[in-house]
Amino acid sequence: MARDKDKRNFALREGSGEETSVFSGGTPRQAALKAARRLDPDDSEASADRTELRLREKGTHKVHIYEGWAWEEDAPDDKPDWMPDEITKGNVEKQGVEHLEDI
To answer: Where are the chain's structural domains?
Structure first.
């Protein structure tokens, strides 16, 4: 398991520049996947709406830009008792990195 010093924090930025949520992860993609799972899920991955996710790495001027989408699917047959029958899955695709000047 990764230690706390290996974790980095990424703030989800809205179009207005407001930072609404913080996701942690060892890589920007890991934080983006967490953010994608909070999107409104569709019935299948193929029909899921894609949404731009802009994550600013805390302590830096870098904004990692991803396209993310979420969908629901049936939980695996060997799921634990506490897991619901339908789970939300998400995926992301990196679009690039932007450097901010106004922080």
So the answer is: 4-99
Residues 6+ apart with CB under 8 A from 95: 52, 65, 66, 67
According to DSSP, residue 4 is labeled: G
Q: How far apart are CA 85 and CA 47, in angstroms?
A: 21
The rounded distance, in Å, linking the Cα atoms of 103 and 87 is 37
pTM metric for this prediction: 0.86
> What span, in angstroms and rounded, lies between the C-alpha atoms of 103 and 75?
42
1-47 pLDDT, tens digit per residue, is 556 678 999 999 988 888 999 999 999 999 999 999 999 999 999 99
Q: Which letter, b or e, does each residue of 29-58 get, where b requires 16 or more Cβ atoms within 10 Å of its Cβ?
A: ebbbbbbbeebebeeeeeebeeeebbbbbe
